[in-house]
Amino acid sequence: MASLVSARRTLRQGETLFRDGDRFVALYAVRTGFLKTHIGGRDGRDQVTAFQMAGDLLGLDGVASERHTCNAVALEDSQVCMIPYAGLESLCREVPGLLRQFHRVMGREIVRDQRTMLLLAGMRAEERLAAFILNLTSRLRARGFSAVAVVLRMSREEIGSFLGLKLETVSRTFSKLQDAGILDVRQRHVRVVDADALQWIVDGGASHRGRTSA
Amino acid sequence: MASLVSARRTLRQGETLFRDGDRFVALYAVRTGFLKTHIGGRDGRDQVTAFQMAGDLLGLDGVASERHTCNAVALEDSQVCMIPYAGLESLCREVPGLLRQFHRVMGREIVRDQRTMLLLAGMRAEERLAAFILNLTSRLRARGFSAVAVVLRMSREEIGSFLGLKLETVSRTFSKLQDAGILDVRQRHVRVVDADALQWIVDGGASHRGRTSA
DNA sequence: CGTGTCTTTGAAGCGAGTCAATCAGGGTGG
DNA sequence: CCACCCTGATTGACTCGCTTCAAAGACACG
Asked: Taking residues B54-72, what's their average pLDDT?
C-alpha cells in the first residue's frame, strides 16, 4: 500500500486540494492537518459534506464520473499523500486482500453518508450538534488525541453548513449546552464536560420521543 | 456479468429482502417492481434512505462491515437478481473493465447520497418535493416509462421520511403544487403539468434566493 | 491601536410540526 | 350489490423551533 503513495502535497490554510469539475486522478490520505469538502450549489447554496483529519481519505466522490464533484479545502496547514487511482486499481488485481480493503473504504463512505442523512432528516439542532461533537471527539480519541479538550478548526458557519443549520443557531446551541453544564465553550475551544449527556441528547432523550416504538 | 446472477428472488409487496444486521453475501439488482431501503433508529426514528426501481442496485451498504446496515422492503410485488459478492470480487480480478465498472457503481452511490444530503440540509419543503418528483420522473423516463403520469408506489409518510418531512407537510405541499397548476395530484396518481416550474422551484426560484452569489 | 472577521445575543417572523377532524378508497362480509 | 370498516390522505388551527435581521462583543492581524 505504501508503495502507491507517489507524492505528498503540502497545503496552506485555505488552499484548495481539488475542485468540483477537476479531473479525478488520485485519492488523498490526510497525513496531518484538517480539511473540509463542500459542494457549491449554483445559487447561494453551499454545503460542507465532510471534515477530514489525519488518516481520513478524500476524493472518492470522483470515482463515479472521472471528475470530482466537490471541493476540498485545507482548514489549517495540512499535508496529504497522493494515491494515484490507476495504480491503485491495477494493484488491486495483484495484491490479495487489497481489493476487499478498498471496497470496505468505499462502503464505509456510503454508510457514513447515510448516517449523516439520518441526522439531517430527523434531528433537531441540539441533537445535531451533540452528534457532531461526539463524532469529532471519538475520531480524535481514535487518533490518540484528547477527546475532552477540542479546538475546532472550522467556523460556526461551516459547522452549520454541515449540520443544515444557520450559524446563529449553532452559536446559540453551543451556548445552551454550556448553560446546561455539558460543554465548556470559549470561541473555538470546546471542553466536553459531560459526554454521557451528549449521548443522551443524541439518543433523543431531550425530546419526549422516548417511548419504545411509537 | 450475466454469469454472476446466481438466482432470482420474487418478493411480494411488503416482503423484506434483507434486514439491518443480516450477513452481507450479495448485491441485488431490481428486475421488476419497486423497493425501499430504510434505517431504523433505536427510538422512534426511522428513515427511508432510497427508493429502487428496475435496474437499480441494492445492498452496497453491506460492503463496509460484512453486514447490512439497513432494511430493504418491496413496495410492490418485485423480482430481484442476486449477485454474490464473493463471485463478483473474484471476477473483478479477471474481467478487464469490470473492476472499474463496479467502482463506478459504488461511486455513484456516494455521489447520490451527497446530493441527498444537500437536499436535506438546505432545501425547504416545496423544493424537496419538487426535486423528488423530478428525480422520480427522470429515472422513469430513462427506463422508457412515462415521465408525466406517475403512480407513486410509496405512501406520504414514506415520502416524508425520505425527504425529512412529516406526512402532513408532504400532503400540503402536493396540494400547493396542484393549486399552482404545476402538478395534478389524485391520491397516488400524479401528473406533471409543468416540469419547468418544478425545476425552477428546485433551483431556488420560489424563494428570493435568486441573487447570483449572496 | 485600529480594522476586519468571527462569534454571541436579542427580538420578531415564518415555516414546518403537532394535534385533531374529516374525507376518499379498497376490501370484506352480510 | 351495498353497507361497513380500515387505512391512507387531506385540511384546519395552533404551537414551536429555526431563521432572519440587527447590534454588540471578542480576537487576530497589520
From this structure: 97
The 8-class DSSP code of residue B146 comes to -
When CB atoms are compared, the residue of A41, A164, A209 closest to B43 is: A209
CB of B155 nearer than 7 A to strand D: yes
Distance (Å) of CA A4 to CA A79, B35, B67, B167, B175: 16, 40, 29, 50, 56
Interval A76-109: pLDDT, tens = 999 999 999 999 999 998 888 899 999 999 999 9
Residues ≥6 apart with Cβ < 8 Å to B106: A63, A103, A106, A107, A110, B60, B63
Using only C-alpha atoms, chain B has a radius of gyration, in whole angstroms, of 19
The region of weakest confidence among B84-93, B147-156, B185-194 is: B84-93
CB contact under 8 A, A110 and B214: no
Residues 122-181 of A with CB under 7 A from strand C: 152, 155-157, 167-168, 170-172, 174-175
- Contact between chains at B44 and A109 (C-beta distance less than 8 A): no
Average pLDDT over residues B23-37: 97
Q: Give yes or no for residue B163 having a pLDDT over 60.
A: yes
pTM: 0.93
Rounded to whole angstroms, the Cα distance separating B75 from B151 reads 12
